Structures are given as structure tokens and as C-alpha cells.
Amino acid sequence: MRNFNTITVIFLGLVGLKTAAQKTLTVREAIEIAIESNYDVRIAKNDTEISKIEKGLLNSGYLPSVSASGNVNYSDEVQSVVFSDGSLTEVDNAITESYSAGITADYTIFDGLERKFNSKKNTENLNYTKLQERQLIENTVISIYETYYNVAYQAQVVDNLLLTIENSIDRLERTKRKLKYGQGTKLDQLNAQVDLNNDSISYASAYKDLKNAKRNLNLLLGREVTVPFKIDTVVIFSEPFDENDILQSAEENNVSALLNKQNILLSELDIKINKAKYLPKINGSASYEWNESLNPVTSFALENETYGLNLGLGLSWNLFDSGKTQTNIKTSKITKANREIELYRAKEELKTEIYNAYEDYMNKQFTLKAEDNNVLTNRLNFSRIQKQASLAQVSAVEFRQAQINLFNALNNLAKAKYDLKIAEINLLQLAGKLIQ
To answer: What is the pLDDT of residues 45-68, one digit of tens each?
Structure first.
């Protein structure tokens, strides 16, 4: 038993020294690290960069296409030519050489406004991707809060177990003194020793859970999972929320609602893009070309060279494309109608979520106050039990029960504290104010 006590004290001492050397990580610092390093957030930011590129001038269709060309041809033939007067000429090694080079620019002058609406769609796609990035960041922030406060809760469980172990050690020492002076029994000492052993085992298990929770948080932050840190168990609550303010803010700022509205806007642009296909297209072209040929004696001209500017203007009008455009317009209109239904449903779901979340928030406020009062009561009760135990006026069972009640009350208070903060964060997300 003495060896076990020694091992327990050494173990707890080493854990304390290791924890003291670690840097405290605040929840705000954790969020900042995640926004820079979280794997999913980095992918979402890259997707936004892709949308920015697609929105750029180079993908707008408003720039001309320019191409350059060049050709060289060479032939060595045997030619036999009969002229109109009946004379015959045969030429061996009749060499023909031709050279050409040119540069051509094509430009769409008018395409039925399809280019204009495609450009607008690229802009709105960028806005949509930004909203998706914001949504993913918000979800990541929620996960960070939940994981961070899970670490904080596990840390407080460890601290509460340390307090329990301290009280168990004090109880064991009292039973030893009483036995020494003939005022106690060996059974009391053995019971105290068993309870201390159980507390130490619980501490080792809780400390393991704390280390696991820290690794999970490091993984979420996108950094090496073994990075050591201490947790900040202090929670600062926001001012009380008003349900009507949350509802009003959510209608204007909730990211899910904004994504649904953006989907409707994109559907409207799809309809306009398809309708633009009914209109004619006008294309212009300009080229500068040079051609030269060297011909054998059998040719009319031994050498020919041309160069100059060529301009062109073309009109095309797809009068009927087998009904493809009409089909696309009809399906685009139905898609828009579906997205309007989705928006209405999303609004009702959002209201339901807000009502439920606000009810949960109010309940957790009450729970925190009740658990705080419960801790005060249990502290007073345990203090009274301790005094009575020193006077041998309570049994070992009563002492242990008071000790367990205080431990549970402290844990429940910590959980209630973090649960209320998570409820606040959920309301902020629903209101669209989480990452402002």
C-alpha cells in the first residue's frame, strides 16, 4: 500500500510539472490557427481561388482569339506538258516551293447577350463559392468550440479528481493516526486505502481521456497532433440574446439562407443564358497574310508573291436546333421553381432551429445557475462532513458519499458552463454572426 501511495504521488507530481511547462492555448488562438491550417478550410479557400480565376477577364469571352500560322511546301517532280500548239515539253526535277505566313484575329461582336450573362454567372458563382467557404469555416469554428471545451471539461475532471485524491489522502492519514492511538479500526484504514486507490485509477483514466482530447483538437487545427498545450478553462459569456433579434438577423445573414437565395439567382441566369441562344451572332475577323511560291518553267508564272490585310464579317442565326434550347429553358425554369421551394422550406427549418436552439439556450442558463447552487451546497456539506469526520461523528460511508457528491457537482458545473457556451455559439451561427 505504501508503495502504491508513493507511485501515485510521483505520477501526479510529474504530470503537474509537465503541464506547468506548456503554453496556454485560448479558444480564439485555436480558431485563428484552424482558419489558417485546417485541411478542409484550405481546400475551400482554393475552391474560391478557382472561382476568382473563372470570373476573370481571360474567361469572360470579351477578348479576341489570335492565332499565327506558317507553311512551307516543297515538291520535286517530273512534268510533261502539251501546249495548245501541239508542242511537248518534259522537265525533270520540276521543283515547286511555296511559303506562307499569317496572323489572324477573330472576335465575337454580338452573341445574343450569352457572353454577358455567362460573365454575370461567373461573378455569382464566385459569390456562391465564398458563401460555401464561409459555411465551412463556420462549421469548423463550431467543431473547434466543441472540441476545445471538451478538452477544457476533461481538464476540469482531472483537476476535480486531484482534489478528490487530496481529500482521500487526508482521510487515509486520519485513519492511520486514529488506529495508532487506538481510536479507529483496521477496516477504516483499509476502506480509506481502497477509495484512494480507486480515485488514483480514475485519475489515470481521466488523464488519458484528456490527452486523447488534446490530440483530437490538434488534428482539427491542422497541426502536429503531439503539440503540447494547456487549456483555458475560463468562459466569458455574451450578453443575453433576444429571440426576435436572432430571427431577424438570421433572415438577412444566415449562410444557409444566403446560399439558397444565391441558387435562385444562378437559376435565373441559366434561363437568360439559354434564351440568348435564340438571338443571332455576329463575328468579325482580321488577318494579315503573306504567300510566296517558286514554280518550275512549266508554270505560267515562275514566281508569285502576295501579302496584305483581309477583313471579314459574318452573321449566323440558329433558327432551329432540334428543340434543345427550348428544352433547356423549360428545365431551367423548373429548376428555379424547385429552388424557390427549397428556399421556403429552408426558411421554415431555420425558424424551427432557432426556436429549438433558443429554448435549449434558456434551459442551459437555468441549468448553470442550478449547478452553481448545487456546488455551493455540496461544498458546505463536505466541509461539515470533514469537521465531523475529524471528531469521529460520521461513518466512512457518509464521508465517501459526500466526497463523491462534491466531485459530481463540480463536474456537472463544468459541463453546464461549457454547454451554455456552445448553445451561445450555435445561436450566433444561426443568426449569421459567428465569424463577424
So the answer is: 999 999 999 999 989 889 999 999
